[in-house]
Design a protein that fits this description.
Order of helices and strands: HHHHEEHHHHHEEHHHHHHHHHHH
Protein name: Zn(2)-C6 fungal-type domain-containing protein
Number of helices: 20
Shape: globular
Radius of gyration: 25 Å
Helix content: 55-70%
Number of strands: 4
Largest sheet: 2 strands, antiparallel
Keywords: Membrane, Nucleus, Transmembrane, Transmembrane helix
Structural class: mainly alpha
GO molecular function, one term: DNA-binding transcription factor activity, RNA polymerase II-specific
Number of domains: 3
Pfam family, one: Zn_clus
Organism: Venturia inaequalis
Length: 411
């Protein structure tokens, strides 16, 4: 008696993970959104590839636009969505029903439930955790800029996903996957603008949007998972992309101060300007950097290198003065140091010079005051511990005070 193989329905719309695993009938992708049952059980990213008709042929105008100058292309990219490969799980209603037709059809694009979830989490939760003095700006104004500047939207989505990864440990890897994807998508646009010099050609709204993006990148950099050897602002390949953008956006503050002050984020800039003046006038009764400076002086460095380190310590001392002299410190008081340090110091940090690493450990103490924030949790201890492991035994006593201030370092 012949037997026939039991056939099963093949789906063209299952998720990528289930297709690659070639699951059997009883494990077939059920196409639940935002994550199918199989991916939920396996804690793997659930990605759907939309099917649709091929796009239109390129017109002569679009072909010509491909040969535009890099600056023009980058400026256009500020308002354009890049491909977002891991975009998760568009939601469609599979049920039958009448189709309404009219001369003006609404968009046929399906809802992306994950991105709606991320935006909802941002406006109801995450925005309140970034800065006590800018909650409404982050809740209302940042999304407004994001709708016309996609790189800001990617930054919002990335931080919201990190926040959900922090809150929902059972789906941590899922949210981390999408946080990384959104962050990289936003960086691709913003980095192209910085590298092409298009910052000087941006309009007022784009300048504000780029500034918002750079501040959100700071949050992402401190909140993301950290690995050994990760100094956050530099890595094996040089300066971190987000740090390049942060440093590059200094041009915006210098050349577009009126636009920033007149923007919906104007109150933040007014506070920042006032804190900057306070920083220059604040005094430090107990100079916590004195022993570090003396250790560096005694190490016998050449005059140029010593001047570089002294300048970094001088700026660090100003930050300590304003933070320690105020009953309520601001995040800007801490991160302003990253704006002020010289590019030469960054190169020494990348080369893991003992003096540069030790100065960074002192900077970490400043961030320790904000460890109660979810996105700053463990950041200061991570920096100090990483510096400690890269220092040889003859230099580790240089950071004895930072180790004490952050509560010791993990074994």
């Amino acid at each position: 008696m012949s037997t026939s193989r039991k056939s099963h329905r093949k789906t063209r719309t299952g998720c990528v993970s289930c297709k690659q695993r070639k699951v059997k009938t009883f494990l077939q992708c059920d196409e639940l959104r935002p994550s199918c049952t199989n991916c939920t059980r396996r804690y793997t990213p659930c990605v759907y590839i939309p099917f649709g008709p091929p796009g239109p042929l390129a017109s002569p105008a679009s072909t010509a636009s491909q040969t535009a100058s890099p600056a023009a292309s980058s400026l256009h990219a500020l308002h354009s969505h890049p491909p977002y490969t891991p975009s998760s799980t568009p939601y469609t209603n599979p049920g039958p029903g009448p189709h309404v037709t009219s001369d003006a059809q609404p968009s046929a694009q399906p809802f992306d439930m994950l991105q709606l979830e991320l935006l909802h989490n941002w406006t109801t939760s995450t925005c309140y955790t970034l800065s006590p003095d800018a909650r409404e700006e982050y809740r209302i104004e940042a999304p407004k800029f994001a709708f016309s500047h996609p790189f800001v939207m990617h930054a919002i989505m990335a931080i919201s996903a990190l926040h959900l990864a922090y809150l929902r440990r059972d789906r941590r890897e899922f949210y981390l996957f999408h946080a990384k994807a959104h962050h990289e998508a936003g960086l691709r646009i913003a980095s192209a603008c910085v590298e092409s010099g298009v910052l000087s050609a941006m309009d007022d709204k784009s300048c504000v949007a780029m500034w918002v993006f750079s501040t959100l990148c700071c949050v992402f950099a401190t909140a993301r998972p950290r690995n050994f050897g990760d100094f956050v602002i530099v890595g094996e390949k040089g300066q971190a992309d987000w740090f390049i953008i942060l440093r590059g956006s200094r041009h915006i503050l210098e050349s577009s101060s009126d636009a920033l002050l007149n923007s919906p984020f104007g109150p933040m800039f007014q506070i920042g300007a006032a804190r900057g003046k306070l920083r220059e006038k604040a005094t430090l009764d107990n100079d916590v950097t004195a022993s570090l400076r003396q250790n560096i002086v005694d190490s016998g460095l050449d005059e140029g290198t010593l001047a570089l380190y002294n300048a970094a310590i001088d700026e660090l001392r100003k930050s300590f003065a304003v933070v320690y002299s105020q009953t309520k410190a601001e995040l800007g008081d801490v991160f302003r140091w990253l704006w002020c340090i010289d590019d030469g110091f960054i190169r020494h940090l990348q080369d893991k010079k003992p003096a540069a690493l030790s100065i960074l450990a002192y900077f970490a103490v400043l961030t320790h005051s904000f460890s109660s924030l979810w996105w700053m949790e463990g950041f200061s201890r991570h920096i100090v511990a990483t510096v400690y492991r890269f220092l040889d035994h003859s230099h580790r006593h240089w950071i004895r005070w930072p180790i004490q201030e952050v509560g010791g370092i993990p074994e």
